[in-house]
Amino acid sequence: MIYFREQARLDALYRLDLLDTPASESFDRITRLASQIFGLPAAAISLTDRDRQWFKSRVGIDRCSIPRDSAPCSEVVETMQPLVIEGFLASPCYADSPLGQAATRFYAGVPLITSDGYGLGTLCVLGTEPRQVLPSEMSALIDLAAMVMAQIELQHAFGRIDPVSGMPTRSQFRDDLADMARDYPGERRLAVMIDLARDDQISKIARAIGAARIDDLIIEASRSLGAALGPDRTAYHVGPTQFAFLSPPNVDEATYLQLLQSAFISLQAASSVRFVTSIAIGIRPFVLGQIATDDVLRGAASAAQDARRADGSIAVYSPSSDTAHQRQYGLMRDFGVALEEGSQLRLVYQPRIDLLTGFCIGAEALLRWRHPRLGDISPAEFIPIIEQTSLARPTTQWVLDAAMDQLVDWRHAGINITVAVNISAANLGEADLIERIETGLLERKLLPSQLEIEITESAIMDHPYHALSILRDMAAAGICVAIDDFGTGHSSLAYLQRLPAHVVKIDQTFVRNLTEVTGPDFVLLETMIGLAQKLGYRCVAEGVETSEAAAILAQIGCEEAQGFLFAKPIEVDRFARWISKHRARGESKSFTMPSSFRVNKSKETAKHNRFARSAGAARPLHVSVGSIAS
């Protein structure tokens, strides 16, 4: 019975994970107060391990532990009663103990008892002269011991120990690192972050097997990590599937990296879910006292994310990469403010030209952001960030409202064109998206055909069946649907022919370098346009920058084009003037398709090189374009 009681006591002690942890000011404060109350040079918070007394906090004591045998603290734990030794030399049990031999002549200790009734250790005071104890002193010592236990329970209750892994948490890591920075300033260390799996992998495991399997994964990893580090090292559970620990002081980074790579292979091989997860390790070198504790862990986590994007699974902290991540977060935070404030955001419009007539028949609305401190932020930088957050919905709504308001203004000015608005994959999950669009059109007395909704091919293919349902409802409401960046999304032909879209926009990567009617680029482009038109779509070519490209597109039947050849995105206050000038000059600038660009579609030539150049003369092709400088 005594054996099992002792095992249960040790289990309670180990679960608290106090042994061999750095000094903590929250405990040192109590120890100093005990020393002051008794007027004695030494005091300690002593934890009773299997074969030692380890001092979590100590004043006036040089050693961090003493053997448990013949230690008065051990008796306090075993009896669960206070113990006072007024004169060590008169005590038959402790006169020859390590404390007695170290000139200790007085001892008073009270037990540290958990709410479950287990003794963890003692709060004790020690002196070099025999003395008696006043009742008020013992009462104060008992109260201070209760404060120690309250601190222990408080740390454990408020996220200091993870209930699944049994490891100290992020909060404890932060406090321990602050204590180390105070005690060992200037010491070089490596913070190591182990990330067991991506968020989507954890989600899939939980969905397929259940959340309990995630707990099993955590327990399995914590045991493996604890065994690898050994009893003298501390690992922390700092995230749902993230663990962290510190290297020994002043290790060689290259050598330690090799050790981590070997440990990584062992950890991965030991995982029971290694085939459905991917482990990443991030390393953050730092100097104690020279970097904020929060930045140490954040830097290690940043390196772990870099490891996922690299070929290997281990990466060292990169200041430039970390700066980029911080900028992304800053932009995400500031964009929410910009969306509420409104004046930082605006729409510009890039004209779409009918290649047959040369007239502008539409425009694509493009969001622009002028940051009050950073200036103009590229849409290529901030839009992908916004699309991954809850800001995707209000951002799209802001663009829709601004575009529809502009249509009303243009209608009053006699400009009747279609405006295209881009939506993201996240918007397809909004149940009221179509209702909001229809309401906006009705409130402004606009026709559904005046608004075109663009969605990228890749966004559609992320959730094809759901996207198909949404796009069908949109088409049924009379709203024109366009597939943007066509040719880059790897959609199947079987699915493509079912999409209720009206327009496909050929991605600019297929158009920008188009200079002749031969070669694989032209073959691919001509095939894409022909296929889209046979399926009933109207084709718009993006990124048209040369008159040669425009001529080739017109000859192979592409209906519309947009690009710098016609106009860059135009500020709204200049768009009306551009339209007027474009119409006035619509027939004043044209070009003739050179004979070398003639498309030969004879069946015989098609067998070998369907789109080879023709040596004969070609019928001139005229395409009217507006002035780029307008």
TrEMBL record:
Transmembrane segments: none
Domain EAL: 328-583
UniProt-listed SUPFAM superfamilies: EAL domain-like, GAF domain-like, Nucleotide cyclase
InterPro entries reported in the protein's UniProt record: Cyclic-di-GMP_PDE-like (IPR050706), EAL_dom (IPR001633), EAL_sf (IPR035919), GAF (IPR003018), GAF-like_dom_sf (IPR029016), Nucleotide_cyclase (IPR029787), Rev_trsase/Diguanyl_cyclase (IPR043128)
CDD domains: EAL
Top-level taxonomic group: Bacteria
One Pfam family, short name: GAF
Name of the protein this chain belongs to: GGDEF and EAL domain-containing protein
Organism: Sphingomonas mollis
